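#onboarding

Welcome to the new folks! Below is a worked example of what a typical request in this channel looks like: someone posts a single protein sequence, and someone else replies with the predicted structure as tokens. Don't worry about understanding the tokens yet, we'll cover that in week two.

Example request:
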Amino acid sequence: MGRIGYRKFHGFRGTVFGKSIPRKYLLDYGQARELSAEFSTLVEDGGIGLLIGEVGIGKTTAIRAFRDGLGERSCRVCYVGSVKHSTAVLQDFVLQMGYQPAHQRASLLRQLSTAISQTWLEQRKKTLLVLDDAQATEESLLEDLRLLSNFDIDSLEPLILLLVGHPSLQNRLRKPVHLALWDRLRMLFRLEGLSLDETHQYIEQHLKAAGGPTDLFTPEARVAVFEQSQGIPRRINRLALEAIKRSTRSKVNTIDEAMISVAAGVFDGV
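Example response:
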């Protein structure tokens, strides 16, 4: 007889500690509320924003939650989330704006300017361009985006630009070559790891979202998850899922501190 999976053993209805969960289960905590307020102000006022944080801290999740909350009412959102050649990034933005992308950067910038202007003049909507993993972009793209952000219509700024990336992006933008872009920032926000209490709530929300038992992890186990993960959501997900799989193989209905330590050992040096 084959082994049963963790869903059946623990009674989960869906994937637990996955990359995303339904919006209603997202953790509502202080830093998330602060960031949402910053996003709202940026969209209202226009300009350039910078969101930084360590790998796995939840930057992309925060962007998606805010984008989903915006809908199509207040602005048009275009998102590029993978590292690409600068021309490919501009082409992706142009395509999302409903145009057939050109091949030359100068032409692409004109297409974007036209699309942003038309969106504002015809629909009274601003355009939000989100560039994720921006720390890995080429120098030329950062300059292109700065130039793109220069124009306005009737003293209004119909373009909102949000750069998202590793903390090294902040240092990069402060170099002399990018000071013109740095000086135009209207939002700078750094996401930090969750606190112990927030980690406890985070674990519970993910267990609820998957339809499983919310008391699966003992209080001591949750503390151990926090200590091992430093409150970084991606590490919490990885560690908690590994512990759940190990508890399934061992046919144990409760995950304790010792099991978290064993699960953490799997990722030592990773």
